[in-house]
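For the sake of clarity, the format in which proteins appear in this thesis is described at this point. Each number in the token line that follows is a code from a learned vocabulary of backbone shapes. One such record is shown here in full, so that the layout can be seen directly:
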Amino acid sequence: MLTALYSAISGLSANGLSLSVIGDNVANMNTVGFKASRISFGDVLSQTITGVAGDSQVGRGVLVTDVSPLFTQGSFETTASGLDMAVDGEG
């Protein structure tokens, strides 16, 4: 019973962190120079249970493996100054 509760709690905790990352991305989408983040999930080791029908594996929860920034190319903006420039590509 406790392992089922742990699985549920770990899933809720990981989902809460995911919503936090998404909220941060949405809140800063118009901030100049902001780089969005991506969250990755992984399994907690599974447990093998032997029963009448044979062996089966039961997951023991989920965990956040990584929150990493996305370094994709941003958009260019035209300005009134002739001295403004931007780097395109690998730079």
